[in-house]
Amino acid sequence: MRLKGCAPVNPWDDGVNDGGTVMTFVMNVRLTLVASANPMADPAMGSPSGEPPMIGDDALCLPSDCDAVLDVCIGGHRVWSIAPPSWEEAAAGTSRRVSWPPILLPYLNGSAHVVIREHVSGRVLLDRNHRFGTGEGEVRIVNAAGHPLSVNKAGRLDRAFEAGTDAMVDSLLDGIETLIKDIREECGIEAFLAFGGLLGAIREGKLIGHDVDADIGYVSAYTHPLDVARESFHLQRMLHRRGYKVNRFSAADFKARIRDPDGGTRGIDIFGGFFVDGYFHLMPTVRAPLPRSAIFPLGEVTLHGRQLPAPADPEALLEAKYGKNWRVPDPSFKHQPPPSTRRRLHGWMRGLRQHIRYWESFYNSKDSAAVPDEPSAFAQWVHERESTPQPLVDIGFGTGRDALWFARTGYQVQGFEYVPAAVKHAEDAARKEGLSAKFDVFNLYERRQVLATGAELAHDERPRVLYGRFLVHALEDEGRHNLWRFAEMALRSGGRLYVEFRTGKDATAEHAFGEHFRRFLPSDVVVDEIESRGGHVEHREEGHGLAVYKDEDPHVCRLVVRWDQ
Fold it and tell me: Alpha carbon of 543 to those of 321, 381, 509: distances in Å?
């Protein structure tokens, strides 16, 4: 049997030919399995079934009798954990195939010390060196500061607690205690430890090693979803006044960020809960027939020696979240609530985070580094038309290439972006260069934020440039309609909206930066939408040759729009 990227084991082949030259074709880690029935077995003999374990640059191929959660370690730290249900059966009775997570692939090029072990028992199935691809250096899966990263439950790379320090843990615990106190003092709400932090406290009295953040929950005094949402937004405003940086997930849950001792940030998720029709709901995925007595009166649990508030029956909440086997560690766990729960909670509270996971993964990976640093042709074209630098708002600035260039050119730049990672990158770059530019998280799917920010800009009497490159085709209908609403408000004192977007005339073309949601619309449709909001198109051009990148030459449309005063 051959699988793409996997080759049979040859225990005598060390990957080097007689001349000592490293093979340049796709190479394989020959997994050395310890026989489960005989701990003294020769590692070269493979698994009990005699199947040859294999590994390739695009996938692992594991014996069919391997049924435990596995940790994959590279360079001395865990980078990924996989569970049997995620494995694809390659051929009956032979082996199972599991692809490397896409976010790891850019790192897998070079030499590596690879260990594969069972997560619960710690039994080592593989321990040997391997060269991925044709790279000459060492595979290092770390952040810019050199801290080890691993794939978290959302498929992103993050620094897990097991790769952190005591100071990092103490800082997080301080943040939890302070946040719970602030919520109580500001809003009279009694918050409690929830989900991963609660699970770690009950199971071991400490944070779970493979976890990356903390969770707290609270129970709303309201039962109608609209009132629950209003209360959550009120809580967010209170915390913002206390200096917290906040990223909202839905109408009833958001993340507060605190600073790590090493300068990084760590999140504390705040999940709203409420009782409706005999069921307890806790964002984002819990709906269970729990009585109020399962939550109140709040009790306490011990986490790293600290006493923190917790539900009265923490085991009941943990079973509702993680199932009956919640006591068994599983770093690959993903909660899959019933469709009825997803429909209900999404219908009531969510719908504000379309495609966010793709973009979070993109901006947290090396893929974003492939985007050119120099300004786009569209940015230069806009500058030529405006000639005099003025206030400029870049909506959906992405990697910040154009926004930072405008700031260097003298524009007073305010950048809005959907993804917190992109905002942080732009802030860091502007700070390093000493640029006068401001960047904020902005969600075109959240009408409340669209109206509030639009009103704020409308009260500033200076004309401005609104700039959106490759934004229109990345939005679903609701976000696109909110963009026109926002532009109408923000340009009330004068100025122009500049947009460049792909039309539907080459929708099947290759995309340099991967597949993601795109809504290609004929330019006439976009113009009609703008005019229906009172906009007037001053300039329109479209065709090829306007947004060339390497071998790509998409058909795009450029519009310049103003609104009457």
Answer: 52, 15, 14
